[in-house]
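[SOLVED] Need 3D model of a two-part complex

Original post:
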Amino acid sequence: MRSELLFRVAIGACAVLLVALVAAIGLELVRESSLSIQTFGLRFWLTKTWDPVAGEFGALPFIWGTLYSSVLALLISTPIALGIAIFISELCPAWLRTPLVFLTELLAAIPSIVYGLWAIFVLVPAVRQLEASTPAVLRALPLFSGPPLGVGMLAAALVLAVMVIPFTSAVAREVLKTVPVVQREAAYALGATRFEAIRSAIFFARTGIVGAIMLGFGRALGETMAVTMVIGNNPQISASLFAPQYTMAAVIANEFTEATDELYLNALVEIGLVLFIITLIVNAGSRVLIWAMSRSVAPAAPRQAAAATAA
Amino acid sequence: MTRDAGRRFVSAVFVIACGLAVLLALVPLAFVLFFVVSQGVQALNIGFFTQMPRPVGETGGGMLNALVGTLVLTGLAAAMAIPIGVISGVYMSEYKGTRLATATRFAADTLNGVPSIVIGIFAYAVAVLPFRQFSAMAGGLALGVMMIPIIARTTEELLLLVPGALREGALALGATRARAVFTVILPAALPGIITGVVLALARVAGETAPLLFTAFNNRFLSTDLRQPIASMTVQIFTYAISPYEDWHRQAWAGALVLVTFVLVCSLVTRVVTARVQRLRG
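Solution:
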């Protein structure tokens, strides 16, 4: 009995360490940003002047850039990711399933820096051409205003979309798997077409699918390198897809080693702190949804969906 | 009748749209791989692996320092993350349902979702600031923190798949719990756990953001853990945003090496997973 307890305490210590690690990350972020929090308070998040030389730090442009790029990326990636999930889990012949799953996983395995490299030299020139050939009528709209630089919001959103697709589609696939087969068979028995049967399955799985989309959102918010390399790194708030902008992760990546005085460094850490909190909320929310969905289906199912989340 | 035809039409359009979505996602994959291979092959030679970077203006040279750096950094990360990850995975599966197991699982999933750049800030705060020095140690810490949750969750998942009869058999023979875990249960799940470790390694080897201000960079060959160290990813980043043709070529070569590594890792894990699944029937 003694050795049993000893074993439990010994390996429990490692588990405690893991929990403590998350707490430590939060604590360190608060500690290292305290100067900025005290100096600026809420003003930090509501003003848009980012001038390290003058000691003026307003993070609004970064929040805007992060949210705008992530939402745009979701608009592009969600239909594609759901289409893939549906195709793999419902439509494709069995022999094609494994290779397709492998290829979409590969999309997730390619390092961010490689996407960035590709985006700088291949995607950005292509986007520049696309922007330059946009008709003048459209260019008058705020959405397409500004010079065709190539680097900017559009290029960033496109790279982000590609990078988010595999995450959303993997979780959506797992979620669709938990829908009981009876659901579809019943629909077919009533004379439903394929689309109608799948629609009923999707409706059944809607909570989990929203969770899958949120998980992709969480990924997009924190993505750093590829975005940093193509978004143009200009702290301005613009609705234009062509405009160079900036994200929270990108400003940390670019300016952290240049931050010479303490206030500057604290300001950057505060941006990291908020990024931490936002992704925490989004990820927890998505997990709750996926969990609620799988729990409502079968007692054995939650593990599967949870595994997909972890991957 | 016409209504039925309409429904069938909608259904056919939907099926085609789903197929198109797959193609649409494979296009960027094909494009990225095509450019990485075609550009990378042109720049890749033996010198890339055996030589140091040359100053701007001199052509040739390699990334020996960055290759060594990445090995050192991932080695440090693995040394830190494998024990912590595997053991907390064992805890989660052995004592599942306890409050600590649930908390650990939640912490692991949370950590998995934390952006890598934020983990970089953490490593900076605990391993760079106190010593006023960028170091390989700090970079390894950042990568290790990223590896822990992946390994912990894979270990947990795989241990839960080990048949209960194995555990019961070991306990029935009088083994203590520790003995049952280390001599029967863990070995049964070992191929899968190794797969998880390899995947985690592949993932952190491609990380750039958490290294920018922890391991920093180093133009020289270094294995000193207290000094800044180069890495493939940071080197690719530096080269990619530079204005020099020759550095761009080096960046593509680096990307090819990185992607090949990731690809080999995924293929190996695929094969191992398939074999494990077949054994399990």
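Edit: Chain A touches chain B through 89 residues (CB under 8 Å).
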